[in-house]
Amino acid sequence: MATKKKPDQPPEKVFAAGLVKDEGRYLYYVDKRCNIVRMERGVPKAKTEVVVVTGLRREKGFDYFVDADGDLSREPE
Fold it and tell me: What is the pTM of this model?
């Protein structure tokens, strides 16, 4: 099964959140409303907590993620 090759462009920052992450305790991700959310690691059925409300909308064809700087970034799928 072949995988898609990603374009040779760096991820695009779409929202400068400047979030200081506690990666040892929490898992951070971007929800369907494009907000940054966290949940506690290792806790079954842990509740999610919206950390940053971005007010953005997802665009088709992009993967959204929280980058190393704590900002919301995206890259083509």
Answer: 0.81
